[in-house]
Write a structure and sequence with these properties.
By secondary structure, this protein is an all-alpha fold. It is built from three helices and no strands. The N and C termini lie far apart (73 Å).
């Protein structure tokens, strides 16, 4: 049991001193902030102006693509 305690203690020491681990943790924090911002913009659904603009744009692209294939 003491062996596992010492190994885990050393692993935590290496993790604390590891700069790559800190950078990846910062990326996780940034990703969470981005997801939160996108969630705040779209709210509970896509009923706002941004959602309507995206729906209109996707519909226009789909229509143009279907026309190009048909024609």
């Amino acid at each position: 049991m003491l062996k596992y305690y010492i190994e885990s203690k050393e692993a935590f020491k290496r993790l604390r001193a590891d700069q790559d681990g800190v950078v990846s943790f910062e990326y996780i924090i940034v990703a969470v902030c981005i997801v939160g911002a996108v969630g705040a913009v779209f709210g509970g659904g896509a009923g706002g102006q941004i959602g309507a603009a995206l729906t209109t744009g996707i519909t226009a692209i789909t229509t143009a693509f279907a026309t190009a294939i048909a024609g």
